[in-house]
Design brief:
- There is one protein chain.
- With 357 residues, this protein is an alpha/beta fold.
- It contains twelve helices and 16 strands.
- It has two domains: 3-127 and 319-338, Rossmann fold (3-Layer(aba) Sandwich), CATH 3.40.50.720; 130-310, 3-Layer(aba) Sandwich (Rossmann fold).
- Helices cover 31% and strands 17% of the residues.
- The strands form four sheets. A seven-stranded parallel β-sheet has the order 12-11-10-13-14-15-16, with helices on both faces. A five-stranded parallel β-sheet has the order 6-5-7-8-9.
- A hairpin with an 8-residue loop joins β2 and β3.
- It is elongated.
């Protein structure tokens, strides 16, 4: 570890006439931490004030500015918004980089493979927002099945759509067949909540899990799960093998009048195919918190269909989840600089962080 030496001995006299004592001790040089979240630098510095780190931010919120700033960084805290990332170009420029902490569950704004090849562990914030996202999924399901947002909008226009609401489809969640795609912390939290409400819950994940490992949801092969699901809930991580996992063919397998809830990543779901399935009448509606392009373009056709509930990627944005996320990130940085193994490494690199002198 790089250290500064403070020498011991007697220095020039104190103003009162006594000798000035110098202490002999080694003080670690602060770690250089590059913070990418869209927050003021003073606030970011305050978050890490108790740790031996010097916090900097890019000169501008552009990939080029990140590439320039990362050259001297030892630790990077990523951008939960996804606007700034750490890709292959940034990794190549980061000759001192020892650790990347992503303040979200998804790591699609990082290049975990490039980081692994460079020997740099990358960690996420697994579990921090699981309760918040799962509650959003349940709330979105209720809102879609009972047309809550549509009915509210009609009432504010002076209408009284009492009979029309039931004609839009939907119904009760109790007894409904729910399929969950993805079974991490969020998937388990979703399964437990839907099961508690009396739904018939099954799931698919890339690794087959028992119901005990999956919040009570039994595992099914994906084609069978799609045929089962009157309500399909997407909470799977975006990866090459899950990109557009739910495409036109998959949506066609869903029962007539099914609903889709997406709180995963926009790239998991073919939005054009979804819109087509709703407009054709095969699907009754959807609730989306994530999109292929974010922010969602103002002219997106998704905005034109009132059977689609739209949310601005805020399913995990409860105060409680944000508090847990901040605590997790700060604690993992503390682990990094103190030599303890960091938690939630996603790219298979040794979790003990070593400084690159």
């Amino acid at each position: 570890m790089v250290r500064m030496r403070i020498l011991s001995g007697f220095g020039p006299p104190e103003p009162g006439g006594g000798p000035r004592l110098w202490h002999d001790r080694a003080v670690p040089t602060p770690w250089s931490l590059l913070a990418l979240p869209p927050l003021d630098e003073s606030l970011l510095a305050l978050l890490f004030a108790d740790l031996p780190v010097t916090v900097t931010t890019p000169a501008a919120r552009t990939p080029a500015a990140v590439t320039e700033a990362i050259a001297t960084a030892e630790i990077v805290v990523g951008d939960w918004s996804g606007a700034l990332g750490v890709g292959a170009d940034q990794v190549a420029a980061a000759t001192r980089l020892a650790f990347v902490q992503q303040p979200s569950v998804g790591v699609d704004s990082l290049d975990p493979d490039a980081l692994a090849q460079a020997g740099v562990p990358a960690a996420n914030a697994a579990g921090a927002n699981a309760i918040s996202v799962a509650e959003w999924c349940v709330g979105a399901a209720f809102a879609g099945l009972r047309s809550l947002a549509w009915a509210d909008a009609q009432m504010r226009l002076g209408e009284w759509p009492q009979l029309t609401v039931s004609q839009r489809g939907g119904g009760e969640l109790t007894g409904r067949r729910v399929g969950i795609v993805g079974m991490g912390d969020i998937g388990r939290a979703c399964a437990a909540r839907f099961a508690a409400l009396g739904a018939d819950v099954a799931h698919w994940s890339r690794r087959q899990r028992s119901a005990g490992e999956a919040g009570g949801a039994r595992w099914m092969p994906l084609p069978d799960l799609l045929a089962h699901s009157q309500l399909l809930v997407l909470v799977v991580a975006l990866a090459p093998e899950t990109h557009r996992l739910i495409d036109a063919e998959a949506l066609e397998r869903l029962p007539q009048g099914a609903y889709v809830v997406n709180a995963a990543r926009g790239g998991v779901l073919d939005e054009t195919a979804l819109l087509g399935a709703i407009r054709s009448g095969h699907l009754a509606g959807a609730a989306l918190d994530v999109y292929a392009t974010e922010p969602l373009p103002a002219d997106s056709p998704l905005r034109d269909d009132d059977r689609i509930l739209l949310s601005p990627h805020a399913a995990g944005a409860s105060r409680e989840a944000q508090g847990r996320l901040i605590s997790l990130v700060v604690d993992n940085v503390r682990r990094a600089v103190s030599g303890e193994p960091v938690l939630h490494v996603v790219n298979g690199v040794d979790p003990v962080i070593r400084r690159r002198d």
